[in-house]
Design goal:
Immunoglobulin-like, ten-stranded mixed beta sheet, Carboxypeptidase regulatory-like domain-containing protein
């Protein structure tokens, strides 16, 4: 056997062995659901002004990190107005990123919202209002977190929580946050944006 064949086969073997050791966990539902607490909230997206693209702005996902263990979680929303929920271990979390899309166009904002998940309770994170500027060169986004109507936690949790689980309201801090919105690849392959 030639040296190239041996190197190729050994590389393939290592990739298969190392890849077999990697464990992929659905970030919305960690391994032991009984050890994790239900976290839920409501998002609503508003575009400031008329959108020339003709697509509504949707939240694709919200990414967060547990501040002690640095374990990352992500909840897929894919809507402009919907309830989101996931199960998280007890701890303090920092919401890192929010990704939006308008049809094929994707955008991302880096945010800093913190909240704590207590033990033995379902956590209501409130109503997250995203105000996104229309497409332009420098685009901004504002998140405003509010408790909303007193009946909202009970209404949202009717299908998510058992009757015996207490619900606590934990609003992420700060309750108002402004940041920029950046374009995310893969952008539609328009030659203008990929010129050299």
């Amino acid at each position: 056997m030639s040296i190239n064949v041996v190197l190729t086969l050994s590389s393939l073997f290592l990739v298969l062995v190392i890849g077999g050791c990697t464990k992929v966990v659905d970030p919305n539902f960690a391994q032991d659901q009984d050890a994790n607490e239900l976290v839920f909230g409501y998002i609503q997206v508003e575009t400031d002004g008329s959108n020339p693209r003709g697509y509504p702005t949707h939240v694709r996902f919200i990414a967060m990190t547990e501040t002690t263990t640095r374990e990352r979680f992500r909840v897929d929303v894919r809507s402009d107005s919907d309830v989101f929920s996931l199960r998280l271990p007890v701890g303090t979390y920092s919401v890192d990123r929010v990704q939006f899309n308008e049809g094929p166009f994707m955008y991302e904002s880096h945010v800093q919202l913190e909240f704590h998940v207590p033990e033995g309770k379902a956590v209501y994170l409130g109503v997250w209002q995203f105000d996104v500027e229309t497409p332009r060169t420098i685009r901004h986004m504002r998140i405003q977190v509010a408790e909303g109507d007193q009946e909202l936690p009970m209404l949202f949790s009717a299908n998510l929580v058992t009757d015996s689980t207490p619900i606590t309201t934990v609003l992420p801090k700060p309750e108002v946050f402004e940041t920029r919105v950046f374009t995310v690849a893969p952008y539609p392959k328009i030659k203008y944006f990929y010129r050299q």
